[in-house]
Amino acid sequence: MNTLIRYLPFVLFLFFCRVSSASGPDDAVYNKLVKEYTLYPDGSMEYREHKELTLLTYMSFHRLFGETFIVYDPACQELAIHEAYTIMADGMRVEVPDNGFNEVLPREAANAPAYNRLREMVVTHTGLEVGATIYLDYSIKTVAGHFPAFMGEILIGETVPLREKQVIIRIPEGESLHYKMLNMRTAPETGMEDGMQVYTFTFREQPATPQLWGTDPTQLPRLFFSTAKDMERAYFPFVAQDAFRFRTTPEMEAAVELVKETNKSDLEVALAIRKMVADEIGTWDLPLEYTGFSCRTPAEVWQSNGGTLAEKNILLASLLRQAGLQAEAVAVIPGKYFDRSTGSLYVIKGFAVRVNPGTGEHIYLSATRKESQDLAFTLAGNKLLVLDGAIESLKTFDIPETENQALFTGELRLDEDRLAGTLNIFLGQGFNPYFSLSADSAYAKKYADGASSAVIRELNRAHSRFDVDFVSPDADGLYADYLFIKLPFFKNGTDSWGYPYVESGRSLPIRLPYPVNEKYVYALSLPDGHELLSPTGETAIENEIGKVVVKTEIKGNSLIYTRELRLNTSYVDYKGLDSFEELWKVWMNPSHRELVLKMQ
Asked: Which residue from 433, 403, 429 is spatially nearest to 516, judged by alpha carbons?
């Protein structure tokens, strides 16, 4: 009974995960969704959206679709609501009343004074019930010059099924439209309408966008388009902004000099400046689309003590340059999205800074997070585009994928029912906390609860080796005469992924964070009067995805425990799902993650 109680939280977690992810009735369905993009001869633009959405569950209007949120910039955009009403299940038409339209500050701009001009129209739909259909038709007109190019990105699927979706793009005669359709073979119908070229993409009977864990967004059908002839035509107007001149002020220069006075090596200076920007400059999570793809200068960001993701990375690059380091702000673009023949800046999905700290190789830093290791190990599969108004052609870098490694070995013992001993830890590639250990060797003690001391044996960008002495701060689970021993595991390894199981019947490929080699080998001295109840023996599986080994054996008065997982790839296609699940079931089995002893 005690054992059942111990595992009950885990069982309930799995149950609710399966309930929440199981296929069931859809909450709603789009009968029709039309997105229209128009470029006028004077350079102004218009976006218009029309939707007809039928509600199928109480959840659909209580939590999901009861309101529509429309963000725009009144300084250069004009919002117009053409229709907003509901047809109830009995056919009655209910218009959205005047008090159903309320302008608020977008959540993303709540703490961003420089962008407090932005507005979000909240449309509260009325007459909602199961079987009702929401109708909404609105448009946003944008003045010429607000965006660097006429461009966009459309994810084809929605969170609920689509009976019909249309994407209509209108451009003046003589203009050329360049587009890229990913993961779907669909060509537009073309024609002329009032002197405008019209491209119409039609999608019918589209399923809901998958919400399963490990879904790779680059594998979902989406459309990028632009009238920019190629990426260069979109890129150079973007980096022509003053922000990309990376200029600093006397106040910023003084701050950099202070950092240089208190730090010796170039790496220490780079990490100290990164810490200053990440900790002391607020982060405003505003998409580039909301700001018209404009970026304020580093001086403005410094003065306002806050900036968008792009602005903070430009600031970081500017300060690093002021410190005498070779630094470049880079845009992070998924490799599958990058196409020089389609000039859409919507392909940019992140930012970082590439810097040479004098260690013989470049490293990548984030201006918003104090990562313990080079970002390069998490950027595999992306194209990095240098952002600099002074360069004359596109400059890009590819980041190769690497296998992250974690090896924990150790001699363990029980000290008054508390686990103790010495862990010998090897961490490689993305698992290696190179920056943190370089700054403070005591950081190694974070890898064992109750650590008393740590000794660094080897440390470089590729890997680290260190020993940690520890005594568990709390006694392990003791129930009557049974002792449940929680073995030390790497919290930043596969446990951090949060993937407890593979959904039954899953056919969607899985994108893992990275290939991994994670292994634990422990020798535990068994005290007199303690009997091992956990089963001994070995479970070993090897297939095209990787291998898993779980082994427990008794040698003399010692218990030898081995647990190992190796995944050769970060992408599991539908053909490899069964093989991955075979490995993952063994690896995540809770009975393989602790030892049970009975005291005589």
From this structure: 403
CA distance 564 to 583: 10
- With contact defined as beta carbons under 8 Å apart, do 288 and 310 qualify? yes
Domain with CATH 2.60.120.1130 in the chain: 404-599
CB 379 within 8 A of CB 364: yes
- In tens, the pLDDT along 233-269 reads 999 999 999 999 999 999 999 999 999 999 989 999 9
Query: 531 has which bridge partners?
Result: 598
> Shortest CA distance to 46 belongs to which of 186, 152, 195?
152
CA distance 540 to 549: 4
Orientation of helix 266-280 relative to helix 309-322, angle to 10°: 150
Query: What is the distance in angstroms between the CA of the first residue and the CA of the last residue of the chain?
Result: 19
**Contact residues for 507 (Cβ-Cβ < 8 A; gap 6+):** 574, 577
DSSP bridge pairs for 182: 222
CA 459 to chain centre: 28
Helix (H), strand (E), coil (C) string for 171-188? EECCCCCEEEEECCCCCC
Q: What pTM did the predictor assign?
A: 0.90
Which residues of the chain carry a pLDDT beneath 70?
1-25, 475-480
Work out the angle at residue 549's Cα, subtended by the Cα atoms of residues 465 and 594, and round it to the nearest 5 degrees.
80
160 three-state secondary structure? coil
Give the torsion sign (CA, 300, 301, 306, 310): positive
Residues of the chain with CATH 3.10.620.30: 237-398
Euclidean distance between CA atoms 421 and 404, whole angstroms: 25
* Topology, domain 237-398: C8orf32 fold (3.10.620)
State the Rg of the chain over Cα: 28
**Whether the Cβ atoms of residue 548 and residue 541 lie closer than 8 Å to each other:** yes
Give the HSE-up count for residue 564: Cα atoms under 13 Å, Cβ half-sphere.
20
How many whole angstroms separate alpha carbon 471 and alpha carbon 469? 7
In this structure, are residues 389 and 423 in contact, taking their beta carbons and an 8 Å threshold?
A: no
Alpha-carbon torsion (358, 359, 365, 369), positive or negative: negative
The Cα 212–Cα 258 span in angstroms is 48
Write out pLDDT tens, residues 340-353: 998 999 999 999 99
Q: Which amino acid is at 568?
A: N
Q: Which two tokens stand for residue 121?
A: 């129209």
CATH entry 3.30.420.10 includes domain 28-227:
no
Whole-angstrom distance, CA of residue 463 vs CA of residue 466? 10
In angstroms, the CA 441 to CA 453 distance is 10
Question: What tokens does 196 get?
Answer: 């405008």
Angle between helices 266-280 and 250-262 (to 10 degrees): 130
In 3D, which of 40, 31, 9 has the Cα closest to residue 197?
40
Strand order in the sheet with 451-459: 451-459, 463-471, 418-428, 404-415, 516-525, 558-567, 546-555, 537-542
Query: For domain 404-599, which CATH number applies: 1.10.3210.10, 2.60.120.1130, 2.140.10.30, 3.40.50.10090?
Result: 2.60.120.1130
**Are the C-beta atoms of residues 131 and 54 closer than 8 Å to each other?**
yes
Tell me how far CA of residue 577 lies from CA of 150, 505, 540, in angstroms.
Answer: 40, 10, 18
